[in-house]
Amino acid sequence: MKNRTPLYDLVLKAFLLLVLPLIAALWLAFGIVGSVLVGVGYGFFAPWIATFEAFRQNTEPRKFLHCLTDGTWSTIKGSCVVVRDFLDICYHSVKSYLKEFREKTSDSGPRGIKLMLAPACFVVGLMGLIVEVALFTSLAICKSPYMLLKGWQRLLHDLISREGPFFETACVPIAGLVILLWPLIVIGSTILAIFLSIFVGLYGAVIVYQETSFWRGMAYIVAMVAEFDEYTNDFLYLREGTCFPRPKYRKKDTKSLEMSTKFSQPSEGSVTAQYRRASSSSEPGLIVPTLTASRSVRETIQEVKMVQVSDDTMKGCEMRGKELVDANVLTAADFEEWAHSSKSIKSTIIGVGLPAYSLLYTLLQSVRHGTAGLLMADGVEITYLNRPRDRVFDWFFHPLIVLRDQISAANLVESELRYLEKLTLMSGYLERMATWENGAIAPESALKNGEIQALSRRLQGLTRNISKFPTYRRRYQQVVKCLLVYAQEKEGTLKPRISKLGSTRGSRKEDPSQRSKLVEGFTSINISSSV
């Protein structure tokens, strides 16, 4: 019988068999409690906030009508969207992560547990659980009166001076309720600190195993108390620092890291230098945020920039898909196969190839116009300075800029660009690559061929990573439905009137010759001078 878990030895497998039922039980318990809390919170606050939006209407009858209607059906649809996105995470994203983890190979043989460290891990984990819970609870209870008084003082000051949450008229009822419910917020924060102290204390066993030292695990326990004390002091504007010692629990010396980074500073024109300058200048150390112009409650709570980037990405996939359908490269059978079975080899053309192809088009467009960032389909340029302040977006923005520079520095001619498009779209499916005649010619140089294949694999890898995040699969399925209806109309297998059900708002059809003009314009640029 084939061993399906060659990365683990017998001891680690036995340990996982004992631990996995406990993890599954905790996951079920936390899932039920979290679902109830999120459902109650969203079901209560979403209609409430939508009701305050009604006061922006012009006439009194419209205000009364919107107070009754706003936040009802939209809350139900929002709840369904949350459930759908969570379902995609459980059934698609988690499976993708597990598949990648299972496919990894270990050069040093199967992984195991160091049995010699098991007693030390148990002792430190137990000590951490006792010490962290006791000290975190004591600090949280002792500082909770300061949090109560400081919060009331700040909220009353903002109420008198019409600043902060009281700056917007529609936010006054919410801020007033915050003043009344502030004691409950303080109690909730105290309970949360006590709850998190359990996991902080148990993590001491992980430190012992990673550092192979019992004393470093004990040092971690003391250091975490000092960090929690210092964090709460900064949050409540109390005395700076902490009275607890903070020993080092990691073997890596911070001074050596600082010296190593000092001698490896990037050049002024490099991407890393631009990223560091933008990061350092985009987050000023201000305690009170600067007041901006009056905005609605919905605009204040929701972050629209990241949504705009996501909308533009989906529109780009839809436009590129329609171009390929018009060129008879993609058919309705391709979209149907992805909808029915997204795990087959052929379905990777739609699931991975099409988004990666659209991403390649965006990078080529950015290189052609000589932009410092990414030029989206609607003409908006995203740079390090105006990018959405989102950590998830930063995970992909910097690699995309690096990939754009690599494509620019490759000095690809038109036939090589066509070959890169074919590799990116077809995801290595040789039969479909042979049937698509787009003027691509594989380079004779093995070095250039390997460079182009590496670029296509990076594009597909970024696409796979992006597809694991929430909302992506739900929105991409809508794009595939629209393209399926479009392809069926073109093939004559669907009546034209049904296409209205699959059309997306704001989609636009692009001239098929625009992609050829883009590639020709790309090759006419002196790329080496723009790098």
Provide a quick synopsis of the model:
This protein is mostly helical and 531 residues long.
Describe the 3D structure.
By secondary structure, the chain is mainly alpha-helical. The protein contains 20 helices and two strands. Helix 4 runs parallel beside helix 6, helix 12 packs across helix 16 and helix 13 packs antiparallel against helix 16. It is globular. The relative contact order is 0.07. The C terminus is likely disordered.
**Spatial separation of the terminal alpha carbons:** 54 Å
| Strand residue percentage | under 5%
Oligomeric category: single chain
Number of helices: 20
Q: What composes the largest sheet?
A: 2 strands, antiparallel
Primary descriptors:
531 residues, mainly alpha, two-stranded antiparallel ribbon, 20 helices
